[in-house]
Task: structure prediction
Amino acid sequence: VQLVESGGGLVQPGRSLRLSCAASGFTFSGYAMRWYRQAPGKERESVATITNAGGRTNYADNVKGRFTISRDNAKNTVYLQMNSLKPEDTAVYYCNVVVFSLDYWGQGTQVTVSS
Result:
């Protein structure tokens, strides 16, 4: 299993970013996918989840209405569209999948929200 995140960067408050996570090594369309984030000095937290076919999504309260998770099963890719970014969204963002009860993580992509 391999997960490769991309799309992070430095952005001003109120602006948008779209993160991507390219997956390989497993049957992507058969598994729910998740985005997590970890800010400096804080524990990793769940941000958003999407079911295998994309029919259901779930969000942390602090990103609800601003972030949208989606997936393209033909491209084996999951996305996180982040709008109205705030400084408190600054973190390393990770893609996650659980396959046969094992957690797999990407290397993470840094998102910094600052003026």
